[in-house]
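User: structure tokens for L-rhamnose mutarotase, please.
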Amino acid sequence: MEEIAFAMQLMPGMEAEYQRRHDAIWPELSEALGAAGIRDYAIYLHQESRLLFAVQKRLPGHTAHDLPSLPIMQKWWAYMADLMETNPDNSPVVMPLPCVFRLMS
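Assistant: Done. Predicted tokens:
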């Protein structure tokens, strides 16, 4: 299983709305993420900086790189664009986070 981590920036005052929208994530989007091989996806919020820290676990041979071309992904990005920093195509600005420590037992 591959694991990646990344950060995104939430706009001021949007914490509750971001949570609300994710609490009601669209079933079609959840299905698309699962079909792409994403088996575990968590997003954490650092309150003071409003940085979102995301961790995804992906199956070998995943197709997560194809997600941006899906209409449901583009629709979700447009829906979320008013809450966070985005690129011109409404995708969130993503800052990859390299793993610098892991303890496994």
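User: Anything notable?

Assistant: The chain has a mean pLDDT of 97.
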